[in-house]
Description:
The complex is a heterodimer. Chain A is of the alpha+beta class. Chain A is built from seven helices and 17 strands. Chain A is 24% helix and 27% strand. In chain A, the strands form three sheets. In chain A, strands 1-2-12-3-13-16-14-15 form an eight-stranded mixed sheet, with helices on both faces. A six-stranded antiparallel sheet of chain A has the order 5-4-9-6-7-8, with no helix packed on it. In chain A, helix 5 links the parallel strand 14 and strand 15 (262-265). In chain B, helix 4 packs across helix 8 and helix 6 (263-276) crosses helix 8. Chain B is globular. Helices cover 26% and strands 27% of the residues of chain B. Chain B is an alpha+beta fold. Chain B folds into two domains: 6-73 and 169-345, Aminopeptidase, CATH 3.40.630; 76-155, CATH 2.40.30.40. Classes of the chains: A alpha+beta, B alpha+beta. Chains A and B meet through strand 4, strand 5 and helix 4 of A and strand 16 of B.
Amino acid sequence: MKxxxxxxxxxxxxxxxxxxxxxxxxxxxxxxxxxxRVDALGNLIxxxxxxxxxxxxxxxxxxxxxxxxxxxxxxxxxxxGVGGVMSRHLIGGRVxxxxxxxxxIGSQRGKENSMEDMFIDVGATSKKDCPVKAxxxxxxxxxxxxxxxxxxxxxxxxxxxxxxxxxxxxxxxSTPNEVYFxxxxxxxxxxxxxxxxxxxxxxxxxxxxxxxISADTPQAMKMDxxxxxxxxxxxxxxxxxxxxxxxxxxxxxxxxAKIPYQREVLGGGTTDARSIQMxxxxxxxxCISIPCRYVHSPSEMVDENDVxxxxxxxxxxxxxxxxxxxxx
Amino acid sequence: xxxxxxxxxxxxxxxCNAIGVSGxxxxxxxIVLEETKPxxxxxKVDALGNVLxxxxSRxxxxxxxxxxxxxxxxxLMLVSAEGESFGFEIVGGIDTxxxxxxxxxxxxxxxPAVIGAPPPHKASDGDYLRKPSASSxxxxxxxxxxAKLGDxxxxxxxxxxxxxxxxxxxxxxxxxxATLIELLKHAPTNVELCLSFSVQEEIGLRGARVASNxxxxxxxIVVDSTPARDLPDHEDRENxxxxxxxxxxxxxxxxxxxxxxxxxLIGFLENVAQREKIxxxxxxxxGGGTNANIxxxxxxxxxxxxxxxxxxxxxSPISVARIDxxxxxxxxxxxxxxxxxxxxxxx
Lengths: 328, 347
């Protein structure tokens, strides 16, 4: 599992440029799926089972990144953030462009909080010898680190969700339901891949697997979610309110199996569940969140037990017999 | 190579001088209908007022390519009457500081009007520096005018050609509308063209959303006009944030406000341009969007790309564009349509 996570987190995949990660995932799930397809926006759609409830499980493949907007006369690359990039995490960091070029982020003196005054140094001395041009996309560069039961990577958001979905698919030998695992694109720039894939699948229930903020560090925001206390069942975030029936289904399933869980109310941010909920005539949705420290920084940290319990919970949910869905 | 001569410029002039403020695009629509009907296989006006035209292909199972250009422009709407003056609201993105002392035209009759400026005798510097609320301004009509509430108004700036440049209030986006009409007149036969002359782009990409649901195309190319803030920066610094530059050719979008366009289509367009020696530029990635943003997200998702003719002074009383940039935009899309195959968008 750790080896797969290392590969997943270190694969290049900023929003809109998910080709490499899609191939890694496709290879992994090929022996496990009943049907695999890729849609117009690049979502990887994997079906398991036939008949019963149509359940869409969305984990996004993309990560935040940057995109070059201008190369100046001295060969420094100006850029824009792609997704929720925070300038405070940038200076001294490294990025890798789609063509392999690595760059270091610097800033003008006294302007360390302003992205428009930062630049990427790729070792060029002029516009002419710069291997990067406007429109080239890049991802942050940082290796996966194993701290024992805590794991750190630049793209834990949402490769950890991708891992949970893959492992649940692996554990799910059979299901009475028709499950669509969707590895979505362009989540970080507005849950775009989930919007179109939910339209196509037209599910009965939607579940997003994503990270949430772990507020158990010194002077953190007020929020009752911490590392190691189990998967967080989302009640609401700033983009959607989970369907109470889905929340209840998740909580009951966790309690019955003695899986620890936390109830999540997130002040800022949202997930693919927001778009699935609004697809076509509307879909009951919920979200299993993996608590994560330092979200949208180059060092996002998760806990091994939370990950394993998330896999367990998701697998059990997907095995639910039709008589046990209650009013869903 | 398709050319831009006097017939094309005459049509653009007619389109630019029409009033087509969002939600009231009738005057532009009339011209579009006249121009498209003789050349298209099907033309219809949908519930929102989009003109949807189809030019069929000779090939079986041809690729269905949606081309979109919005017909509407930013402007004002009269909302209250006080004698010969009217209160108004802004439709689309206009900075109210652009309104001081401008000649306007109102309604179907293009009735002349003026938005006043504070006289220097009475005004302080602050009056010009701060951004006034629209509700503090009035549009002044001749007494006895037939203007009524709900009428739209735009800047009264007639189309002009000055050497290699063109100037108009509505280059954004009559230049896109004129481009689509030219493409229809010279339609390649290998693809089925689905032309959307869309409404209400300036108030939230509203027409294109339903047009793409209707066409369900295999891919979409949006033709618009994008800002060029390309004059030298002050204080001798390098201008690093210009969006686009006049004279460098069509601007291809990679990333606009929250939409990452199809990398394969972008690469295809770049290849076509390089092989055909058509100049092009990459529009600086960042905020500010086009209809491609919403078309990409319709239904099961549509591969999109967005190409714009650059112009200076967006959403102001008068914008400036270059005829060569228009010609190169037209030709890039024309050649790309002739060469495109299903393989380009295959995953």
